[in-house]
Amino acid sequence: MTKEMEAEFSQNEIKTFAKPVRFVKEASLDGAEIHSITGYLKEKKEMDLIVAGVDIGSTMTKIVLMNTNIITSVIGPTGAEHRQLANKVMEQALVQAGLSFEDVAYVLATGYGRINVPFADRQVTEITCHARGIQSLFPTARTIIEIGGQDSKAIKLEGGKVLNFAMNDQCAAGTGRFLEVIADALELSLSEMSQISRKAKKKEEISNICTVFAEQEIISRLSEGVVVEDIVAGLFAAISRQVFKLAERLKIEKDVVITGGGAKSTGLIKAFEDKLGFTPLVPEEPLLTGAMGAAILGREQVLKSLEKGKLIRRREQRLEKVTFYE
To answer: By Cβ atoms counted within 10 A, which residue in 118, 150, 292, 301 is the most buried?
Structure first.
């Protein structure tokens, strides 16, 4: 996402957390080490189980460490080599939480670069993880609209489960990248765009949603004397229309939750509100829903295995710098 969005990122922390449960090696089978939790894990001690959710997006990397609550979270830009960045962001999260990697019982990765997290125990699609994260925050959610850095998604939920989804990943229209390009063209920050749009007397029609042509059209409108606030308001309206069409394929139902980096733009949220006819829900930190969902799914998997008396099969994980060519 944009530099302006990065500046607004917040980190969720709690001051205290329980002593972590540690995993120890029990046996080896086909190169995969089998681990089990030492000692106790009764119902009242489930808070001791610490898991990590890692979301490698196209533009941002997010990590959530949690037990029964979020312990800490970190958000950083995604680099060219996802595996090296994931390693660094994970180390930062552990330092913030005062933990070592051995204290983490399970790591679940999701997002665009999920297969490039060498210390993950499992990978799950971002659709599933966003749905689980949103469901934990908003149990009444039926429709999720996620505006990411390079794509946008619509997810339909039923009973907290994914019923259907649609994606726009063929072009930058309706994405954070689209907003970034236009903001640069107008020499405005994203927060300034949102503020300016509130002063608009009308929404200037923006016919081109393609990033390149939209930029040219906006420059042309400026040369014609159209005021910036009307152009920005029209731009937000155009983006909301584009993403609304995507979500309409799934039949939009309340409650609607908007997440992803685009949800940090109050101007864009207002445009969605106008289009929907009601106020959508927005997480306190919309960038973390995927990582949060990954952590929750990882925790649920470990607890389910423990309830059945099964050992957790894990390969030996190491937090170290790696390359794609090793």
So the answer is: 292
pLDDT of residue 88: 86
Amino acid at 19: K
Strand, helix or coil for residue 46: helix
Q: Residues 116, 86: contact at Cβ < 8 Å?
A: yes
Q: Which helix (H) or strand (E) holds 259?
A: strand 256-259
Q: Strand 152-158 relative to strand 51-56: parallel, antiparallel, unpaired?
A: unpaired
Alpha helices (runs of H) in the chain, residue ranges in sequence order: 3-8, 82-97, 126-137, 176-186, 190-197, 211-223, 228-248, 266-276, 289-307
Two domains, one topology: 3-131+288-313 and 140-276:
yes
CA gap 206, 174 in Å, rounded: 13
Q: Distance between CA atoms of 61 and 63, rounded to whole angstroms?
A: 7
- The position carrying tokens 């490698």 is 56
Q: How high is the pLDDT of residue 228?
A: 93
**C-beta separation of 90 from 147 below 8 A:** no
Decide yes or no: CATH 3.30.420.40 for domain 3-131+288-313: yes
Give residue limits of the domains in the chain.
3-131+288-313, 140-276
Tens digits of residue pLDDT in 76-123:
887 666 556 788 889 999 999 999 998 999 999 999 889 888 899 999
pTM, entire model: 0.81
Contact 249, 154 (CB under 8 A): yes
Domain 140-276 has CATH 3.30.420.40: yes
How far is it, in rounded angstroms, from Cα 207 to Cα 234?
A: 9
Q: 141: exposed, middle or buried (C-beta count within 10 Å: 0-12, 13-18, 19+)? A: buried
Confidence category of residue 74, pLDDT binned at 50, 70, 90? very high
1-35 pLDDT per residue, tens? 444 444 433 333 322 233 343 333 333 333 333 34
Length of the chain: 326
